[in-house]
Amino acid sequence: MPTKVIMPQLGESVVEGTVTQWLRQEGETIQEFESLLEVNTDKVDSEIPSPAGGTLLKILVPAGTTVRAGTILAWIGQPGEVLPEGEGPQSAHAAEPAAEAAAPAAPPPTLAPAAGRDRDLGFISPVVARLAREQGVDLTLVKGTGEGGRITKKDVLAFLAAPPPAQAEPLAWETPGEGDLFRPTELMFAAGAPPSAAPTPPKAVPTPPPAPPAPAAQPGDRLVPLDTLRKSIAAHMVMSKHTSPHVTTVMEANLQRVTAHREAHKAAFARDGVNLTYTAYWISALVAALKAVPLVNSSWTEEGILIHSAINIGMATSLGTDGLIVPVIKHADGLSLLGLARSINDLAERARARRLQPDEVKGGTCTITNHGTSGSLFATPIINQPQCAILGVGAIQKRPVVIEDAIAIRPMVYLSLTFDHRILDGAAADQFLSTVVHTLQDWS
Amino acid sequence: MPEMTLIDAVRMAMDEEMARDPNVFIVGEDVGVRGGVFRATVGLFDKYGPERVIDSPLAELSIVGVGIGAALYGMRPICEIQFADFIYPAFNQIVSEAAKMCYRSNGDWTVPMVIRAPYGGGIGGGLYHSQSVEAFFTHVPGLKVVIPSNPYDAKGLLKSAVRDPNPVMFFEPKKGYRLIRGEVPEGEYTVPIGPAQVTRAGADVSVFAYGMMHHYTLQAAEKLAAEGVDVEVVDLRTLYPVDRETILASVRKTGKALIVHEDNLTGGYGAEIAATIAEHAFQDLDAPVRRLAGPDVPGVPFSHPLQDWFMPNPDKIAAALRELAAF
Description:
- The structure holds two protein chains of two kinds.
- Helix content of chain A is 25%, strand content 22%.
- Chain A is built from ten helices and 19 strands.
- In chain A, the strands form five sheets. In chain A, strands 9, 12, 15, 16, 17, 18 and 19 form a seven-stranded mixed beta sheet that branches. In chain A, strands 1-8-6-3 form a four-stranded antiparallel beta sheet, with no helix packed on it.
- In chain A, a hairpin with a 2-residue loop joins strand 18 and strand 19.
- In chain A, helix 8 packs across helix 9 and helix 8 packs across helix 10.
- Chain B has two domains: 181 residues, Thiamin diphosphate (ThDP)-binding fold, Pyr/PP domains (Rossmann fold, 3-Layer(aba) Sandwich), CATH 3.40.50; 130 residues, Rossmann fold (3-Layer(aba) Sandwich).
- In chain B, strands 3-2-4-5-7-6-12 form a seven-stranded mixed beta sheet, with helices on both faces.
- In chain B, helix 8 links the parallel strand 10 and strand 11.
- At the A-B interface, helix 2 of A face loops of B.
- Chain A: Its cofactor is (R)-lipoate.
């Protein structure tokens, strides 16, 4: 009896996933628990182990397709085994009746199947594989012009360079009545358009204001194609700025006691296998302030301000030139400094190795961004929606400061708090930020 | 700027270096009174005298051994091996003495010596006047291996070789001695040992070649251009130390690589380039790395039809390029 491979639910709140890559092809053998495919949800890639050993008999969901959790993705068994009929890719797992019932009547728009979608792709060269992975290209949509119809590097580049028709159309707000909302679905998702990582139903969000005209490319200019993460970051940043009226307030803190504490305890923490970073102190102070001013640990809703009981701290983590990701320390108020430091080490390390679980980037209630690590003194960060505030931490500098009419040299840091002015007024925000400052200054 | 042949540029480089530095001298078979069998040193005997243009016995071992000794005394010898095919008696002196001197004396002693040798086939020279020997020496750290493909580089690189504090193997494509012409400025300039040169920019396929094969590759690239294939040609110029950055940058651009040399395929220099590309640019490859080289037979045949069968030429290079472009 063949074994089903199903799209797992990769997190409490994750209901669908995109198959990004099959690591085995049909007809190849695989051991139980060996990685079989890669699935992308939101910003996180996960490798899915094979549920059984045997031969990969049939792939039902090709790479690039987004399906709901529970969907049968493939069959594994012995060569020649007959597959059960009627269990196509859209049939949900039996254990998911609720999810199935809750599914919208109309399936989310998917790309129109291109002619030859199931064709054998032939030899995929290393560079084509890499480009497809980096740019999220569904190779079944790319026309091959190489030997025997092989997809060449040039074919992929041409595919990426040719803008899909939907994007070439005039922007909706420029031609009222003829915009995307009024166009037939099949035109919006024309064959040949590259797939987005996770197609979602059109959102009823307020129409964004007109974008400035795209600059004309000059000879020698270079177009860097957008990867999934870049698109995700861009969409979130624009959405956040449109959603919340951002206000930033800045204070400074004397880190004399924090640096002394860190120096005194670093070695002891290291013996426990933990690198005691300043971030542990920032988050500890942020948690203390969120407890003191719970209104900041909240989200705006049209019904009212939703104050969260859990304190989950998002930690913006740079992935170098690849972008950034925000892993979340759940229930940070329940962790000691040691627990926080350990959690920070672990999440940051796995974020850079792209090994975060999908649930680990969700559910944050307040976020911290440590822009000081790249030398910034203070910044005006953008709120990580749907949160109320984000704390920016600048570079620690020794500065002359006046203490009781004497000039002293102290390690100082600027702390900037960007907050949603719908929820907080300046006075409450300053009260919150001064709690952070005092927690750090009076560290014991 | 005068146009001249590759061998004229070699002579000009030696003449200028000998005039510049009294420590520079030439030693080799028939280099003096005769002016060299290829006429590379013609006129230098009369100009600089028998003490600086020395006719040696027919013993390559002693040519290089004398060169090493003189170099350790502060001289700047230019040893001429009449044909690269004759270099093997000197192999021990080159590999075990010259190449290791700086290393084994911890930098106290160096051998600032150039060994010039005409190499390559296609001239009807048969088994003992056609060999390509570069791969024996690119395997030996401590030697630099330089092969110019045009008169400008021949002069500039040879001057750099003479001034280099360590031994330089300077192999000259003898088929191109009078075939390859180009403009060469009179007077001082050098071409640094090390950097390769992109001699033709292209987008579709990269070719890595040197010496005579580089000259042929440019001709093949012209043919392919007429067929709509945009070939990038890289003249390696220095085989050791090789310019990896230029090679990898080219492959990253085109995704396809062809290496051409007339030396035998197996263990030839192309294997090193292919391995470098596979190690460092695997994810940029759009086709298997290809080598076009002399076949694995013991020598370049004397018979003309068989010599043609052996030697890569513009047609064979163009055919290999067509296959790669179509892949």
